[in-house]
Amino acid sequence: MSSVEDALENARLTYEQHMRTCRQCHADAAPCAVSKHLLRLYNIARRDRMRALGRQAPTA
């Protein structure tokens, strides 16, 4: 697996784990500041993966 995919998987797992275990996210039924930050990191990793895949796609 490439480092881009590793980063995406790590970001996803970290975000999901936080959402499962954060008392504030569960108590307020709204994301806390940490979860918002982790979601941003996940979105950045997802965007980087899409860019990497775009570079690998054949051009016609």
From TrEMBL:
This is Uncharacterized protein. It comes from Streptomyces sp. 900105245.
